[in-house]
Amino acid sequence: MHGSRPLKAHRNNRKSTGMRTHDRQSIHGQWSSRLTFIMAATGAAVGLGNIWKFPYLTGIHGGSAFVLVYMLCVAVLGIPMMMAEVMLGRRGRQTPINTMRTLAKEANAGQGWQLIGWFGTLAGVLILSYYSVIGGWTIGYIVHAATGDFSGLSGDGATSLFGDFVGNPWIQVAWHTAFMLITMFIVARGVQSGLEKAVSYLMPALLVLLLVLVGYAMTTGYFMQGLAFLFTPDFSHFSGTSMLTAMGQAFFSLSLGMGTIMVYGSYLPKDISIAGTSVAVALSDTMVALIAGMAIFPIVFANALIPGAGPSLIFETIPVAFGHMAGGTFFGTLFFVLLLIAAWTSSISLIEPAVTMMIEKFNMTRRTAAVWTGLVTWLLGLGTAFSFNVWAEVKMGGLTFFEQIDFLTSNLMLPIGAIGMAIFAGWVMSKHVSREELGMNSAAGYFIWHALIRVIAPIAVSIVLLHAIGLF
Ligand code: TRP
Fold it and tell me: For domain 34-468, which architecture applies?
């Protein structure tokens, strides 16, 4: 096991420059092992993005080509960006805001760099406000599944089941509230007793449930068709937009550009390899997305459903599939439990920067900070909860409240944050600091990372951003 593997002693970091930085300890606790960090960061990365968004985007963009480009983006952009974000976090050992301020000082750069931290903290709260509503859907669907509402369901029946569900503002608020309460409860207990304990139970359970679902998919008789859809190269439905979508999805799925990974990095002990752990997290995240695809598409094909159905794929289509299968009530319930667990571990990571910010800036206890951030996030989430019913017609620029927040965060804030971090790590931070903090054995490895983070990542992410705001 990784956790019991002897760790390499960290080389020469005591005698080099930046002594004070090196002696910094996170005031919020520290991961107890490398495996715990990998599981927590994977828990943050694996969420609705993998299990709900990845399959539906793959379906819309024609399958295998999207999967291929997505994996390429994870390898070329995602892994170097994750290394940069973990490195910044571990170097600074504070919240994204204070980390950026300290590191900017260390590099004799302007204080404006802490905006990256403020920006990311705000993005986390904004993302969580709607993430919690979708997380609430998974709770509601656990109940629907468990009470047998899926059995014998037709396509129309599933559509109206979902329509009635999102159309009722009180149901929306109730499940949104339940999701936020669970999130706040774990966050309030802190990184050691809260996060660690939660992820060390939830992540293995998640994997087991996914594999059970794949096992079920194998019995449908359409497993090979599902695999072919995901893995037989076919670029016929692949466009320039697909390329950009795949890149954006890689960033969202890995939780990059917001400060989530920076906070998790700040809890990482000095002697653990950043490159190795980043690769492990990126691989686990991608594996979960692929396993989710392998579970979902055979079920889609076995029931003559449409792979490109869009965001409704899970909530309107999958219940039909489960409704027509032997054991559908049981497996349907498992599916939404799985989705809830994934959303829950991601939501913890989305609120963590704001909670640690409140602790540092306002000298609050963790519990008070969790309550206040949770309350603000919950209030914001009401806008999303109502945007599917009573506020469905309240639009700005043709977008509902939910669509506005989703556009603002995914298409604007995350790419801007990612570019900022890449430029800081590649241009502002001195080479010897980043080299020392990454602690890579291989000079060639460091050279490649530095070139990717300095040139390739800022340019590639700029392309995504300019596309998102419609400049080309
Ligand atoms: N990556 C998560 C998912 O796939 C969502 C998420 C958690 C996230 N933390 C984040 C996305 C930080 C962007 C930034 O569902």
Answer: Orthogonal Bundle (1.10)
